[in-house]
Amino acid sequence: MLSTALPAIVTPTLPGPHAAAIIARRADVVPSAVRCGYPVVIERGAGAMVEDVDGNRFLDWVGGVGVLNVGYSHPEVVAAVKQQADRYFHAMSNIITHEGFVDLAEQLARRAPVRGDKRRTFFANSGAEADENAVKMAKAFTGRPNIVVFSGAFHGRTLLTMAMTAKKAYSVGMGPFPDGVCRADFPDLYRAPGALSGQQAIDYYLRRLEEVFEQASPASSVAAVVVEPVQGEGGFIPAPISWVQALRRICDEHQILLVADEVQCGYGRTGRLFATEYWREAGAAPDIVTSAKSIAAGIPLSAVVAREEIMESVPGGVIGGTYNGNPLACAAGLKVLEIMDRDRLPERAVQIGQKVGARYRQMADRFEAIGDIRGLGAMIGLEFVKDRASKEPDAELVSALVRDCAAHGLLVESAGTHGNVLRFLAPLVITDAQLDAGLDILEAALGRCTATSAADGPRGAAA
């Protein structure tokens, strides 16, 4: 069975002949801005595995960039969607109510760790749509024009979310952007300035946030602070809980809403269904949570959950959409929650994270290029540097690792502001044997790529 198979490359070269032909056709008809540097054309997928059109098998540690927490083609999700498809594909939520829409809204309202006893759920189609609608809700509720986001943030590619996203490679030439988006420094403890560490570093980043209120927007004009519990594109950096607690106090002091973007880190990935369950346990629950990606196992769906008074402050017509809460997506979403609960996938994420983290630490003892290992649950970042003392990013090594791993049957992807972080987002249904195989491929790739770099010249001294 593909779901329990191990990686195997059977063609003499990658891409294989059939994949190469399809990739060439793609290059001829799809905008080159929609890049794909991987030599894979999928024929079928199951669990954490992909088989391509030439019979090569790849272990996927990217998982659709966090979309496939329950794996490719989960048979129960497939059955649920087929059953729904036999009844109807679409029911426009402004015109016709379908019960799956209500069932999923009720479940998410009950489960999301946001403030308030009575919550409501809004559906959209993508993470960017969810984030943009969360900002609309915050502005409607507070009557304020501005928001605060962070360095390293990624929130989407709509006009507003491009402005919210930190890395401007995602928005070259797309301005002018909406105003009222202010940026503070995210607490990247590995790259805190000087010799700051621990509480000193947390205090530094809190002061930087306060400076936004002094230099960019008075707090009285800020509707929301929008933050990822674990930064995704920014480099898999968890928000320290003590910083989140202080952020919650600052928001309360100034009547600012705290919005958690769980598009990439949510749905069991961090060891909880929502990463902000850790926040709630620390007394710092957010006001609004956004979710997408793994919410429906690959069918486009996203959600915003907030307490009733926030949701009910939005004027009629301001939020909505043709496909929001599509019946096929809701059927998948309901089955995903059932699988998460029954198979205890959040707990499995903790086990995966412990295994991967332990192996990464062993690799760090062997390879000086590994500068930092961080994450939460099974959302783990491995940061590579040219020199442990200077922490100079090594994006070239990461690019080489991505290529080398793919050539040996492991799909991995880079992240981080400097492109020097390898992200781990394998489906939570990955087997232990597959996990071991992937770790072996990565370690072997590290040996090859660092040896090549060493042959090209010195990489710098270890810390």
Oligomer: single chain
> Approximately what portion of the residues adopt beta-strand conformation?
15-25%
Structural class: alpha/beta
The CATH superfamily of the largest domain is identified as Type I PLP-dependent aspartate aminotransferase-like (Major domain)
**Strands of the largest sheet, in order across it?**
4-10-9-8-7-5-6
Overall CATH class of the largest domain:
Alpha Beta
Name the CATH architecture of the largest domain: 3-Layer(aba) Sandwich
Order of helices and strands: HEEEHHHEHEHEHEHEHEEHHHEEEHEEEH
Compute the number of helices. 14
> How many domains, in number, for the residues?
2
Shape field: globular
Overall mean pLDDT score? 96
CA distance, first residue to last residue: 46 Å
* Total count of strands: 16
Helix content: 25-40%
Specify the biggest β-sheet.
7 strands, mixed
Rg is: 22 Å
> Could you name the CATH topology of the largest domain?
Aspartate Aminotransferase, domain 2
Which stretches are poorly predicted, pLDDT < 50 over at least 5 residues? 457-463
